[in-house]
Amino acid sequence: MSDTFAAKVWVLGDDIDTDIIIPTEYLALKTVEDMKPYAFSPLRPELAGQIQPGDIIVAGKNFGCGSSREQAPEIIKALGVRCVVAKSFARIFFRNAINNGLLLIENPDLHDAVAEGDIVEVTVNEGILHNGTTYPIASLPQNLVEIIEAGGLVKAMRKRNGLE
Amino acid sequence: MGMTIAEKIIAGAAGVTEAHAGEIHYVELDRLMSNDGTTHLTIDMYNTKVKNPRIKDVDKLVWIVDHNIPADSPKTAASHKKMRDFAKEHGIKFHEGEGVCHQVMMEKYVRPGELIFGADSHTCAYGALGAFGTGVGCTDYLYAMVTGTSWLMVPETLRFNLTGKLPEGVYARDLILTIIGKIGANGANYKAMEFGGEGLATLTMSDRIAICNLCVEAGAKTALMPVDSVAMEYLKEHDREPKAVYDSDEDAEYAEVYDIDLSEIQPIVAKPHFVDNVVPAVTCKGVKIDEAFLGSCNNGRIEDLRVGAALIKGRKVSPTVRFLVVPASRDVYVQAMKEGLLDIFMEAGAIVMNPNCSVCWGSCQGVIGENEVLISTGTRNFKGRAGHSNSFVYLASAATVTASAIMGEIATADMLQEV
Known about the structure:
The complex is a heterodimer.
Chain A: E1 4-11, H1 18-21, H2 32-35, H3 47-50, E2 56-59, H4 71-78, E3 83-86, H5 91-99, E4 103-106, H6 110-113, E5 119-123, E6 127-130, E7 133-136, H7 142-150, H8 153-160
Parallel strand pairs in A: 1-2, 2-3, 3-4
Antiparallel strand pairs in A: 1-5, 5-6, 6-7
Helix pairs in contact in A: 7-8
Chain B: H1 5-14, E1 24-28, E2 31-35, H2 39-48, E3 61-65, H3 74-90, E4 93-96, H4 101-108, E5 115-118, E6 132-135, H5 138-147, E7 149-153, E8 157-163, H6 172-183, E9 192-196, H7 205-213, E10 222-224, H8 229-237, E11 256-261, E12 268-270, E13 278-280, E14 291-295, H9 296-299, H10 302-312, E15 322-326, H11 330-338, H12 341-348, E16 351-352, E17 373-376, E18 392-395, H13 398-407
Parallel strand pairs in B: 2-3, 2-5, 3-4, 5-6, 8-9, 8-11, 9-10, 14-15, 14-17, 15-16, 17-18
Antiparallel strand pairs in B: 1-7, 12-13
Helix pairs in contact in B: 2-5, 6-7, 10-12, 10-13
């Protein structure tokens, strides 16, 4: 994975929890597509309508803390968000995102430098370029890269078992 | 090199003699719990995404309907039916209306030394019985269900050495909120939290479950306690034997060691909208409340109901407050009936409800409206967690919640007038 893409940034703060990403009351809706308009609604009700496919989210520490609801990364992916960059991720969300093929990038510094609407250039597994500064990205373990590249855990296992 | 409890359980599950923090191991799982929060998604994926779908070992699966029981809409009824029918078809152990999943698991299934995946973040509660419980999403759950295995990175461990004894009127809930406030909402991210020391012996199983259950609010992957006579007695009462009993080696490596003197803990409140936003309860005195909730996998056990009932006996719920009392399981409910606790709550004007997750997850009944304030023994106080996006949740012990229900504003038990 060494692709490079330019993306518009949406900035969120610390401790963005799973009830912010998708509140309980909308979990009863039938599909992720139905839930999508309510993403982040307790914090920024207009945000789901503003995010365009290919945009990225840059957040502070502990993104995705809270419940194990897998609809959280699914919805972010369904909005077309290319990746989430955060100072850190909560662990259940981290696994769920990887298992759904949503790219997560940990970086301690970008959040403090970036402003909403900025364009950054992401080179996966290498770095993020913003205003002439490159913020390095640590490489993911190979087993996680395989899962993301295949588009999620189920697809990766099918591939590994020769079913695709 | 010595090992922590977490390392020993993972080594056992991976079939290796040693496991150490940072390694990735492929592990055999002992038990797989799932509830109605996401099981319908797991079933959909099982039916549509897995070729030749099969369950590796159906005896490991436990499915529990607790988040929306009884169903509150045709949508949740359909979700429950899907779960019920699938469980029946495949012979999966199925519990409906028997209580909040983690309480049911503690009462009926968890054994020391087991490695357990639960499709629910508070699965770390099982550490109270020396089991490695960790929360996963439905895709990880599906993989484990089909293969009986998964992968885990061995967590580093934060060690909490407990000394002394909690003062009168101070509870395990105050202790764990204090610890989360101290290390922060991601202070244990990817890590195990291990509790030990002489102070542990002073804590009941109910206390221990409350402590381990809430560790995910510090980001922990799991929480663990050694198996002592208190844990063995609980197992005996519930007719179970350990799988394996582990304690950490003296030369085990910890990422950090904290010494906690239980006698210094005081009543605590976690203010909106973060669990680590903790302050001494007394500093919130006078905050008007609209609703109070005594229940949840964290604080809905018989011990918690006894605390609440003792305070409210002979008193009344404030006329401006709805006080929801929700026993965490059917066993707890029946015991509370036998002890006359439900009579006390009802006579005081509380709303006693069936065992379920209730307003702790902002569904079932009891959700709060715009600008309303809830004081809760539940697990989280995130923005919008208990209902409207613009509402406010304070977390506190059973004693503080009950005292607040009586006063109509946040209050600690010692502020109540003599009856």
